[in-house]
Amino acid sequence: MLSSFPNPYPDEILYSTVARYHQRSGNILFRQTVEELFGDRSAHSAVVLPAGLGALAEQTEAYGLDFDCLLYEHTLYPYNTAFFNTKTAVEIYDWAKDSRPGSVNCQLGLYGSKILQPGHLRFCPECYAEELKQFGEGYWHRIHQTPGVLICERHHCSLLETTVPYLSKGSNTYTVAAPDKLFPAKYVSLPTPVARQQAIWIAEDIRYLYENYERIRTAFNKHNSGFQNLFLKLLQTQGLVSDGGMLRINAYRHRFLAYFDSDLLNKLGLSFDEQVGRPWIVSMCRGEKHNVHPLYFILMARFLCGGLARLVDLAEKYTPAELKFSVEPRKRVADHEQKLEVYRSRWLAACQQMPDAGQNEIRKTEGAAYTWLNRHDKEWLSQHPKERKPRGGNCTYADWAGRDSEYSKLIPEAAKRLRIQEGKPVQVTKTKLLQAIGCGMLPARELERLPMTEKAIAQAVEDRMAYRMRKMLWAEQELILSGEPVVKWRLMKTAGIRDEDWDVCWDMFMDRHCVMLEEGFVS
Prior knowledge:
It contains 27 helices and three strands. The protein has helices at residues 14-25, 30-38, 53-60, 67-74, 77-81, 86-97, 125-135, 179-182, 193-211, 213-222, 228-237, 249-259, 262-268, 280-283, 294-305, 308-317, 336-353, 359-365, 367-376, 378-382, 400-420, 430-436, 444-447, 451-460, 464-482, 488-495, 502-518, and strands at residues 120-123, 160-165, 186-187. A three-stranded antiparallel β-sheet has the order 1-2-3. Helix 15 (294-305) packs across helix 16 (308-317) and helix 25 (464-482) crosses helix 26.
C-alpha cells in the first residue's frame, strides 16, 4: 500500500504524476518506483496508456483516484478511442483495468498510422510560468502531448518541443517537467497565419473531445459507429454529393485542399495531392466502417460544419433513418428500344472482331456501348461474349508437403548451430529457428500446413530455465577465463539474470554442479 501519492494537477497526464511521485519517493532506481505503483518492475513508461493501470488504481483509490478517474482524466484513452467501435474500446478498457500483460499500441493506432506522433514531450511556456507561480512546480499537460495539438488552446502560442522522448521504447524512465529537463527546446513552427488559426481550432476541438467524451461516444454509437451518412448530407449542402448520394470526388478533393493549409496537413501527416485516386477524405464517406484516428473526424467536422461540437449537435439532432439516401430507379430513356438495338449490335460486332478477348479488353474499343448496356441491359451484357475468357491470376500452387519435409530436416541443425554459436547464448525460439532456415516469419495459417515442421520446432525450442542454465554456464567460463571468482552475484550479472530470479537460478546452477560431481565430470 502506498504511503502517499501526488494529487494530479488540472490536465496533468499520468506520466507526469508518476514522475513527481518518483522524485518525492526517494527511490534511486525507476524500477523500484514502477514495481511499487504498477506491481511489475519490468513495466515500461508510457505517455499514452500505461500498462498496469488497474494495479495502480487499487492503491490510489484511497486518495480519491479510482480507475475511471485515472483513465478518463489523466491518460489519452478518451482521445484514442473516441471514434473506435465499442468492441475495441471495451477490449482496451478491460486490458487496462485488469492490468493484463502485453501491449495495446497496435489497437490504439500508435503503429502503422499515417498520423504523425509527437517525437518528444511538449509544453507551453506561458502555462509553465503560471504553474510555477501557482503550484511551485510545472508539469506535463495531457492536451500538449496529444497528437495533432501544435498550439496551446489557452494562450494560442506554439508549443515547445523538449528532448524527452515521447515513446519509451523499452525504458522505464519517468522525467519530471523541471527546468533542466525542458531545455534545450524548439518551437513547433507554423509559418502562415492560416495554419496557426487552424491549429488553434484543432486544439480547441481536442479540448472539447476530452470534456465531452461520453456525449461523443453516445452520438457515435447512435449512428452505428460512424458518421458516413451525416458527412454525405453535409457535403450535399455544399454541392459535393448528388441527390442519390454519389460523391463528386474531384470537386470535393479540390475544395478540401483549398480549405486547409498545406503546411498544417503536412505536419499532421494528413496531406495528399490531387493525383491520389482515393484519399482519406473519400474513405471517411465510403467503404466499410473501421476504427479511425480522431484527427480524421476533427478535420472533417471543421471542414463541413465548423467544428466537432457542431458535428455532435447534428448527430444528436438527426436519426440514422433521416440521413439515408433514397436511390431513385433509372428512368427509361425515350428511344430505349432503338438505342438498345444499336448498342447491342456494336457490342456483338466488337466481340466478333476480338474472339479471344475478354470483356475488359473489348470495352477498351467499345467503351460507349459497354457503359450504356451496363446501365440499361446488364443481364444481356453479362452473357456476351458467351465464351468467357478465364480470368488471369496466379495458377501456381506451393508444394506444402515438399516444404514441410525440407524444413523439418533443417530445424534440428539450425537449433544445434544456435546452441553452439560463439559469444553470449541466444535463446532457441520459434522465430530464431525460422530465421535460421531462411523462412523469416511464417504466418500462422502457413505453419498449419507444415505439421512436421511444427513438430520439429516444438522439440527444438528452448524453455526459459534451460536458456538461463546455458547463460550461467557460459558466464561461468567467462569468469574463469578472466580470473574472477565464480560467486553468485558475479555469475548472475554476467549471465544477465533478473534480480528476482537469482535465488531460483543459483539453486538450479548448484544442483547441476552437484550432479556433474557425482557423475565425475567435475573434479
